Amino acid sequence: MRKISLFITITLLSFSLLSTNVLAKLSTEEEAFINKITNDFVKTHSLNLNEYSLFDIRELNNESLQAKEQSLLNISLEITKNQSFIDCSPIYYLNKLKSKGYVLEKKLNGMNNLYTLTYDETNKNWLVTKKTNIMGTDLVDLGLLKGSK
Fold it and tell me: pTM, whole model, 2 decimals?
């Protein structure tokens, strides 16, 4: 029964973070979830996000995307396409100039996949320039899921 409730909780959270909504605002629960995962990435990857802001990918409107936005959405789709059904939705951070960024992908087993992004001004698109995988804290130990060890 615990495994079923764990599965349902992760599934609902993943779908809520993936759903597209132009007017989407983060709930208190989503903010807490994102902060815990982000802090784990800061610790495991020695990441400095002082010059970066959270970017909610749901703010992109599929109907009128420019090349820059479409390439960022394509990266999101590629990452989520390769996820297992119950992994966490990727979290995006972009710098103030929107020329560099990070994607934080937290796997159910605790693996922290960090994608480093760079905006190519010539081709007007975002590129994944590096991917680093480091084992982080699992979701139960972060307090994001209930489980037994």
Answer: 0.80
